[in-house]
Each structure stands twice: as C-alpha cells, then as structure tokens.
Amino acid sequence: MNNPSQPSQPLLIFDMDGVLVDVTESYRETIARTVRDFTGRTISRESIQEYKNAGGWNDDWQLSHHLVHAAGVGAAFEEVKAHFQTLFRGVNGTPGLMLRERWIARPGILEKLSLRFRFALFTGREKEEAQLTLDRFARGLVFDPVVGMHEVENHKPAPDGLLRILRAFPDSAAYYIGDTVDDARAARAAAVPFIGIAASDNPLHAGLVALFQSEGARAMLADINYLPEVFGQ
Ligand SMILES: [Mg+2]
C-alpha cells in the first residue's frame, strides 16, 4: 500500500493501456472490428501500430473514425464512437471486448514497488473506464490521482496530465511509464524521466525502440515486471 504520510515519496506515473494492461485483444481488437463493421475491410495490427508510432493517435475513437474515413466511408465521428463503445463495453448481455484485457503485473511486483513509490495514472481513457479496470485487477493498490481524458485540456503528446500530477506533488521525483511515442513526448515536455515499454511481440518493436531512444527514454523494458530492476529492488 502507498503510505500517505510520506508526501515526498517519489512518483511512478503509469500510462494504462499497453503498460498496466495488455489491450491487444481489447482496444486494438475493437479498433479493427469497428473499421471492419463500417467498411468491410480488415486492418492489420501492424497498421494500427504504425499510427501509434507516428504519434498523435492516442485517442482510439479518433483513430477508428480516421480509418473508416480513409476507407471511403463517411460515417460521423459520434456514430463511429458509439459503435466502438458498444463493442468495447458490451450491450444487452453480450460481453464487451474490454473483458479481454489482461493485467500485466505479476503478483507482488507492484506491491513491492508501492513500498517505495506513490502511484499515479495518466491515461487517454475516460477516468471511469480506467477505474473499472483498476477495480477489477488492482484491488489493494492505490493509484492517486487518476488523470483521464476529461481531466486535461490538451491530450497526449501534450504534457498537461503529467503537469497536473506534478503540481500536486511539487517536492517529489517522478517517472512516467508509457508504451507510445506520444507518452515519451509528453514526458519530455513535462521534464519527467520516461521509461518506455516496448513489448517484444509489438509488431513494430524495433521502430518503437528507436523512437523511445530519440525521445531520450531513461530506460526501456519489455514489460513492467522488470521495473523493480530499474530501481535496484
Ligand atoms: Mg498506452
């Protein structure tokens, strides 16, 4: 558990998707199915990752809408978003793809880190959706604050969410742990050391590692289970 009596505890600020949670079969699958349902076309995981590596496509609703348009189907953003949410959250007893999320941390890893660090979350998700996942997988761990898409004026790669967290803990050292170039850019803009997660099964792994290097990543890991080693634990 985090210890609130130590306000200057260093902060580990986590991105959620691709860092705490494997979303290959949830968000990424929802993007692919949304595009398929509107256009009849199949989009590869590699194509989706190319957009993520290019930066500026942190919002999966916007990316889905863009892909639908790129295939020549003029659906409105709200229509694409609504269908995406139906697939992701489920409807009328049909389970949503969000249930395919997988918690990445092995038992004990985050618990150990929480003895030394305060945890915070800065995600492009809606806060409520992030909280659902934390409640499902991370009971007993405290992530505070949780900054989601509606808590910031400008989204990643803008540093707003990180700056908001840092303002609450001005005396604390902080690290941001993310899995996209937008995360790395947000960290750099906030002058927070960045730890990049580049999963070995990422379809564009080498490109992502190069991007993290060019953004000055402090460390690069295959997944968060290696975090204690970064901090000598
Ligand atoms: Mg992510």
Explain what this protein looks like in three dimensions:
The chain has 2 domains: 11-23 and 102-230, HAD superfamily/HAD-like (Rossmann fold, 3-Layer(aba) Sandwich), CATH 3.40.50; 27-100. The chain is an alpha/beta fold and 233 residues long. The strands form 3 sheets. The chain has a 6-stranded parallel beta sheet, with helices on both faces. Helices cover 41% and strands 15% of the residues. Helix 6 (127-137) links the parallel strand 6 (118-122) and strand 7 (143-147). The chain starts with 10 loop residues before the first strand and ends with a helix. The chain has 10 helices and 10 strands. Helix 1 crosses helix 4 and helix 3 (60-70) crosses helix 4 (77-89). Residues 15, 17-19, 178-180 line the site of magnesium ion.
